[in-house]
Write a structure and sequence with these properties.
The structure is a single chain. The protein is 85% helix and 0% strand.
Length: 65
């Protein structure tokens, strides 16, 4: 499902060009890039938070022994 060939990418690009027009495409690309960047940042922060919680729980268990 995740593999897109050149033909599919070209078809998507043409559809976007027709639907949004050439003046909106750079804005859409920039917004999409920022959205992906924010998603990655949030997922990284969540992963770090979970890792910290696991480490704290492990330390608490080790202290009880």
């Amino acid at each position: 499902m995740g593999n897109l060939g050149f033909g599919e990418m070209l078809l998507i690009g043409v559809a976007l060009l027709i639907f949004f027009g050439p003046s909106k495409l750079p804005e859409l690309g920039k917004a999409l890039g920022k959205g992906i960047q924010e998603f990655k940042k949030a997922s990284r922060e969540l992963t770090d938070s979970v890792k910290d919680d696991i480490a704290e729980d492990k330390d608490k268990k080790d202290d009880k022994k």
